[in-house]
Write a structure and sequence with these properties.
alpha+beta; Jelly Rolls; Arc Repressor Mutant, subunit A; 4-stranded antiparallel β-sheet
Length: 295
């Protein structure tokens, strides 16, 4: 993969400028609508508040999500959470559909069915080898596509019903690939969710842990207990992981110098950034960039 520009593009839908989205925004289109004009390749980009569910019915290829490469084979369902840097290399004439869901809509559904949250924790490509699952997903995408252009009675309810059918089918098929029990609902999970959102806004600023805790209305001890219970890591570690993730993205998808990346992430000393990155990943920034681009 060749190095790109100094900015990782952030789009509304691919190629479209970012804009405010409705709370229940839902969009579906044929997979080849944007991939065919770009010779079946979609360059690395992200969507801040939009999740993707991609059903590949024929053809295939690979998806690159952050530093991972995921296979796409018929018939698979690929899920890409909001905010992840991703790109695609499709085989020519690949067919399927791309479903895009607003984060706010998904959060509304998660409040009613917490199991859905596990689906969107990480990108995953799930093969659907059993005929009933294939039919439910394919029919769900087809029916949802029709409902989105109809203005029949109970339109909104029908759209939500088809989306729920897809999510439930995927959750059940993914059960064996997601063996860990979901975090129990309760105040600690809510604290960690709000903490992760706060990290997303402030990880470049070296914000003190006390400031995070105060903003969440908890003590540092309570924040630590919540993070250890729900995420299995102390809060400082979650901040460090987010910084390291952004560093990986900038090393992989831009041609920024290592010193530029250090300053962009709030480090005053590029040498300290290099030590930090090496401690987090086991590779220096230069070695990480070289190794990944040679792969």
């Amino acid at each position: 993969m060749s190095l790109q520009s100094n900015v990782i593009p952030s789009f509304f839908l691919y190629g479209e400028a970012p804009r405010r989205i409705d709370d229940r925004f839902l969009h579906i289109e044929d997979l080849d609508y944007r991939s065919r004009p770009s010779d079946w390749r979609i360059a690395a980009h992200s969507h801040r508040d939009l999740h993707h569910l991609i059903h590949v019915s024929a053809g295939g290829g690979t998806a690159t999500v952050d530093e991972r490469t995921l296979p796409m084979e018929p018939t698979c369902l690929l899920l890409i959470p909001a905010g992840r840097v991703h790109g695609f290399a499709f085989l020519p004439e690949t067919s399927g559909r791309v479903l895009t869901v607003a984060d706010s809509f998904l959060r509304e559904l998660i409040r009613r069915e917490p199991g859905f949250e596990r689906l969107f924790a990480n990108p995953i490509s799930l093969t659907l080898p059993e005929e009933p699952a294939v039919c439910r997903i394919a029919c769900g995408f087809a029916q949802l596509s029709r409902e989105l252009v109809w203005q029949a009675p109970a339109h909104a309810s029908a759209v939500e019903a088809e989306l729920l059918t897809i999510l439930v089918t995927r959750l059940r098929r993914a059960h064996e690939q997601l063996p860990d029990k979901p975090a129990p609902p309760g105040p600690r999970r809510e604290v960690v969710a709000r903490f992760r959102a706060a990290i997303e806004q402030s990880y470049r600023t070296d914000r003190p842990l006390e400031a995070y805790a105060n903003g969440l209305g908890v003590t540092v001890a309570q924040l630590r207990a919540a993070c250890l219970s729900i995420a299995g890591s102390p809060p400082r570690r979650l901040i460090q992981e987010r910084i390291a993730l952004e560093a990986k993205r900038l090393l992989l998808y831009t041609n920024m110098a290592i010193a530029e990346i250090a300053y962009a992430l709030g480090f005053d000393d590029p040498a300290y950034f290099s030590r930090f990155f090496t401690e987090q990943t086991g590779l220096s920034p230069r070695a990480f960039r070289t190794t990944r681009h040679e792969a």
